Amino acid sequence: MVECETSDFLVLGSGIAGLSFAIEAGKLGKVIVVTKKQIITSNTNLAQGGIASVIGPEDSYQSHIDDTLRTGCGLGDKKAVELLVKNGPQVIKWLISEGVKFDQEHGSLSLSREGGHSENRIIHYGDYTGREIERALVSSIKNLGVEIHENYFALDLLIKNNRCYGAKILNVINGDVNYIFSKVTILATGGIGQLYKNTSNPEIATGDGIAMALRAGAEIVDMEFIQFHPTTMNLVDIPNFLISETVRGEGGILRNVNGVSFMKQYDKLGDLAPRDVVSRSVYGELKKGPVFLDITHKEKAFLKKRFPMIYQECLKHGFDLSKDSIPVVPAAHYICGGIKVDLFGESSIPGLFSFGESSCTGVHGANRLASNSLLESAVFSSLALKAVPKYLKYDLLVEKNINLKSNFEVISESKTVPDLRKELQNIMWKYVGIVRNEKDLEYALKEIEQLDTRAKSEFKYNLNSAQVEFTNMLSLSKIIIRAALIRKESRGTHYLVDYPSRNDSLWLGHIIFEKNEVKMEAI
Questions:
Q1: Across the beta sheet with 253-255, what order do the strands follow?
Q2: Domain presence at residue 387
Q3: Per the structure, how many domains does the chain have?
Q4: What mean pLDDT is predicted for residues 441-454?
């Protein structure tokens, strides 16, 4: 059955980016929030470390700007970074006004430090800051009476004359296809971590929003820059539980198989070097034997209070954080690229906006500075409120002549999708990971093309959400590899052993995909 709805704003995604926008946009018109699982199922909900902002008396905007641009390895957009940093304190005040609780010390916000930061500026709530932010924003959304569709899977954007008018949505519970027409459509659908065998991301992080935008003809940029978190728990047959960078910020030390601290060999900042450096260093040390994170020199009472969730998770697997070093391994964590947007979050398709990890504002460049992501989500979703009013004058009724016939018939779950998905994840992890080479990338592309052919022959027109999700994963894997092959240098999170040096004379710019075309945009 095909159903139609209309709204002023359609928000796809329920993390900090989507919910922050929805709360404020509700003052301008009707908002519908769509999420493919429950509303709290998001990367935001898993964020441990915190949110970066210039709060402390010793800190400055310029310091935070410099740290962000330096970590971005020359590809960060200075204007975007300045907007991010200078709007930070205002965003923190807004989050507190929405009911978010942050840790305090002596009557002021408690601040910690993470890799790449030159000052203490990470605001947190224990080690589950994201969960606290999600709790407060979900509460606000429900109190405002915003319409929420849980367990709805977005299939495609509704595009007419290069303008976005909403999206085609599948109700995964009853199989109905809904057409939601909207004056403004927001993609806040998160990242792509599930493309990889080892990831800190939840199962929903399959890049659906970026893939939909790619099909619709939006510009997609910087897809070769994928950040791997250096420290997830390294145990067989369990998901990669994240050990927050704030553990190192509070004095945690990475040690090799011989118990020796090794990070000073790789970077003068040691254990608080930027994530790309730490991940590659851990990757190299793992070839010699296990790598461990050690914070046993801290008092047990401190660790239980500062890292309650991490402490309990480690204990569940037989490790006492105050007595035992934790075996760690890098895992896919965050994509620095995504849907190319302007300083108000608008994509190259009018009426289509994107915030959070699905977008690329230019803030992160080639490598994200720790804890800038939650801040980026809230800052740019608030800035978008200045750009959306011009679209509210449109009459959606005249656009309903878009063909509403659905070629999407729900069938029972395909038994082959999990196996295909595992094959893709293994290929991406083995050949398109922390350290890359051209031969491996070319092999991976051929293997994924073959996976694509197999999937198309099986799926045809009778599809389910898992098959569409896998199709999205395939299309994004291919452009990640293509971008990695094009950029013949090593910069930030993209390390290509064939070209181990950074080359500003040739590669100081962005690789952009638009449908089947690819171009290089110089800075």
A1: 226-233, 326-335, 291-294, 253-255
A2: no
A3: 2
A4: 96
Reported residue count of the chain is: 523
Helices (H) and strands (E) in the chain, counts: 16, 21
CATH of the domain at 430: 1.20.58.100
Tens of pLDDT, residue by residue over 215-257, are 999 999 999 999 999 999 999 878 888 898 889 989 999 999 9
Domain final residue pick, 265, 297, 331: 331
Name the one residue in this structure whose structure tokens are 């995504």. Answer: 338
**Domain boundary residue among 316, 331, 346?**
331
3-state secondary structure of 130: helix
pLDDT score at 290:
96
In a domain, 51, yes or no: no
CATH number of the domain enclosing 258: 3.90.700.10
Mark out the alpha helices in 72-158 (DSSP H runs). Answer: 78-86, 88-97, 129-144
Q: Give the separation between CA 182 and CA 167, rounded to whole angstroms.
A: 8
306 assigned to active site: no
Of 294, 287, 289, nearest to 271 (Cα)? 294
Q: Is the pLDDT of residue 127 over 80?
A: no
Which of 113, 255, 275, 421 is an active site residue? 275
- Does 53 map to a domain? no
**Two structure tokens written together for 126:** 């224990």
Measured CA to CA, the distance from residue 460 to residue 324 in angstroms comes to 52
Integer Cα distance of 501 and 315 in angstroms: 42
pLDDT of 150-183, one tens digit each? 999 999 999 988 999 999 999 888 888 889 999 9
Reduced to 3 states, what is the DSSP secondary structure of residue 117?
coil
Cβ-count burial 298-329 (b if 16+ within 10 Å, e if not): beeeebeebbeebbebbeeeebebbeebbbbb
The verdict on residue 480 lying in a domain is yes
Which residues on adjacent β-strands are paired with residue 178? 3, 169
Q: What is the pLDDT of residue 405?
A: 47
Enclosing domain of residue 511: 417-522
| Among candidate residues 466, 414, 472, 415, the one with its CA nearest the CA of residue 172 | 466
